[in-house]
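Weekly structure sync - notes
Attendees: PM, LS, DV (DV joined late)
Agenda: review two folding runs queued last week.

Item 1: First target. Sequence and structure tokens pasted below for the record.
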Amino acid sequence: MLNVIGRTVVAVLLVMPVGPASADEGFHCGSRIIAIGMTQAEVLEHCGAPTSKTEETVPVRSGPQVVGTTQSSKWTYTSWGATRVLVFDQEKLVAIQ
């Protein structure tokens, strides 16, 4: 019995990725994949409230000129020892770190 368990553990370890998952793979909330382009409302619907959240006003530049500002938000989700930071420009998800 112990030998079967040992082989199972080794098999699971062999198929697990080494190192952290790439942010390009998306962020999983349950069975849903959260991907670039989703809105804050969609992320909230699937993931619930973030562990923490920061917001800042960021200058928008055209060359050296500041031509306006945009609202940037970073939402942090921590689960199962993994942390993902979702970056929004206005209401749209633009990066997963």
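Item 2: Second target, run right after the first with the same settings.
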Amino acid sequence: MAKIDLARRAQIGRDRRAKTRAQLMQAARALYAERAIDSVTIDDLVNEAGVAKGTFYVHFEHLPDLQVAVADELAQELDDLLQPFRLQLEDPVERIAAGCAAFIREAARNPSWGSLAARGAWALPSVAHAARANLREDLRLAAARRRLGAITPELAFELVSGIVIQAMRAAGEGRLSLAAAPAAVEAILRALGLASAEAHAIVTRVFDPLEPPRAPH
């Protein structure tokens, strides 16, 4: 009688579960990039993933559990794009410009990711929690150093986050090209009150030598 390798059987089971979970996550990302997140149903997800409906409940108890998992992935990807700049740049205004550049540029390079990240930033609060906290901190520092114009840090936060998310969405829909990304960031800096020459110089610096890690496709 053949001996059953229980360890091998358990590993095969784990591999299968990991594969079907990855299929569901990828299906969610694809659908969320195209549609309002709260409009996607479990039936939509399993059809997109090509798995049985019962498979969903092997991995997630409820639909919000899957949304949290997708949000956690996106949050990590945004942080991976942002952190290299925060480690290298001392000036808070340059950090703001570099963060905007990283997000808009990645969205233009990878439109489906840009659309997903933009929708997630609106619909899944945890997606951009760290990025928003960093932006608030940099705006407070910039205001303390008199780097902003008449705009308050609170209004500046709404302006910057709104423009970046809209630019990412436009890139996801093919309406904003990679070549237009520097102009978008320069416009953000001008809206914050920087003079044209200074805004242009900062954008040139952050777009030229620094190359952040690519977000997963």
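Discussion on item 2: The CA atoms of residues 197 and 209 lie 19 Å apart.
Action: LS to circulate a short write-up before next sync.
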